[in-house]
Q: What sequence folds into this?
């Protein structure tokens, strides 16, 4: 009889330890990632196609993936944003000149959030692809910059809007020849901000 009582006690103790451990793990996950925090993996893919005369089509795919188990939403009425900008780099820069990601003559700007009627919902594990086509002169270097911002209400301690931001950028050459017809991934760098 004693062996059964000891075994019963050990099983109950192990069950209690498992329940408490599961609760501590859930609390830790919530504390680390939060219930409303968001993450989005952005990537750019580009293609250059012939168009007419000395013009080419720059096809830009802004790919985004929500790797988290909860959804998040971009809403223009909350002052969130999701934009794509294409800028022409200076044609004859001196050696050693550094270009900032969002520097150069603005060729095109696209409000991807407005194209989604001001409300863009990213479900868990959802993958999105927003494609835009820009007409550009041949023999041009361009900088492509896509960024996503979520407004965290209320403002920060200084009264300024508090944004979490995620961005990706790439540099693409628009060739003089009849263009590239093969699909290729642009050189890029993901950069979370917050």
A:
């Amino acid at each position: 009889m004693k062996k059964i009582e000891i075994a019963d006690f050990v099983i109950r103790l192990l069950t209690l330890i498992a329940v408490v451990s599961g609760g501590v793990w859930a609390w830790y996950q919530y504390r680390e990632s939060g219930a409303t925090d968001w993450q989005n993996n952005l990537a750019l893919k580009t293609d250059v196609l012939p168009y007419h005369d000395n013009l080419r089509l720059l096809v830009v795919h802004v790919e985004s993936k929500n790797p988290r188990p909860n959804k998040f939403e971009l809403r223009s009425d909350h002052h969130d944003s999701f934009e794509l900008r294409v800028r022409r780099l200076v044609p004859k820069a001196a050696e050693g000149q550094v270009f900032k990601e969002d520097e150069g003559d603005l060729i095109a700007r696209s409000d991807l959030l407005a194209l989604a009627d001001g409300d863009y919902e990213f479900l868990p594990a959802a993958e999105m692809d927003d494609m835009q086509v820009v007409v550009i002169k041949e023999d041009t270097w361009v900088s492509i910059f896509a960024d996503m911002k979520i407004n965290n209400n209320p403002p920060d301690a200084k009264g300024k809007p508090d944004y979490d931001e995620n961005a990706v950028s790439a540099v693409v050459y628009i060739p003089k020849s009849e263009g590239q017809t093969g699909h290729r991934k642009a050189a890029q760098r993901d950069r979370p901000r917050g």
Q: What stands out?
A: Confidence is low (pLDDT under 50) at residues 178-189. DSSP finds two helices and eleven strands in the chain. The chain has two domains: 1-35, 38-193. The two ends are 62 Å apart (CA to CA).
